[in-house]
Amino acid sequence: MTLSSSATADHIYATGLRNQWHAVVPSHFVAPGAMRKVTALGEQWLLFRRSDGALSMLADRCPHRGAPLSLGKHLGDRVACWYHGVEVEPDGTVSSVPGLPGCSLEGKRLVTSLPVREVAGAILAYFGDEEHPEPAELTLPEPLTDPGADAFLCYAEWNAPWRYAVENLLDPMHGAFLHHDSHTMFDGDTTAKFRIRETDRGYFFEKTDQRGVNFDWVELCRTGVDWVDLSIPYPPSAGPGGPFGIVGMVCPVDERRSGVFFWRYRRVEDWQRASWRFLYRTLIEQRHWDVLEQDRVMLEAMPADADRRENLYQHDLGVVRLRRLYRAAAASQSTAGV
After folding, report:
1. pLDDT of 325 over the 80 cut
2. Could you tell me which residue ranges the Rieske domain spans (predicted)?
3. Shared-domain flag, residues 110 and 256
């Protein structure tokens, strides 16, 4: 468990929904035999790997005096607090108190340990609350598990609320303006009508009068982890593989910061896979980072109360639907009201 049920709905909405999985950081952030302090959902955590590569995620708080375990020592299969040497196992159990062997702390599970999984180069963790400590069922995005798809993970940290980053993805129309000078999103109409199409795992937000030209649709998927899927047409100069897809996830770091995960993928096999990977690394990747930078600049420049001083119109139906969904989820996870 990571959250008291007395937390308000506003706090949950600001720092991230619980009782589901979230991407936290890329896998390469934590090398074998190393540990790393991270912030996720407004809380401090310690990621550490044993020498065999097995990964654990603990609350960054020694059960003795509350000192950060991240300042301690990596002992191979456990960590030791720097302050008084208290040793903690990967599941949060205190294995040793060197200053007083046999004391009552030993053998007790006193540190929160989160379930973790590694997927396509990213570390996912389950954040439950007091009433839902067991991990929710997790169905991973198909493009990240399909052997016929080849994906590259791009990760960045933005000084913008996690909600703004997700809302940006549920707003296809911004591609025709903010990203107009992009090599893929320069074409198509700058006027459009949209619709919401419900699915058994979320909903599509899509243009009704244009398809396969620009950033024309996005699907929000809630499968134990929240993610989006979208497709952008690619010119022949970008090599084989057809449309270029993006799977996106957003980690709520805290109320003002977010970690954004974008897997850029194409369905390619054999020699086409090698061609796609070569073109991506040598030509396309930097263009994608340029597009991400445009998003970052815009979202970081928006005031903290931007979503309370708006005048929305039809293009914003996807964002409105998202907010209602997340507000309802935050309220259901809180017994303290707003």
Report:
1. yes
2. 21-125
3. no
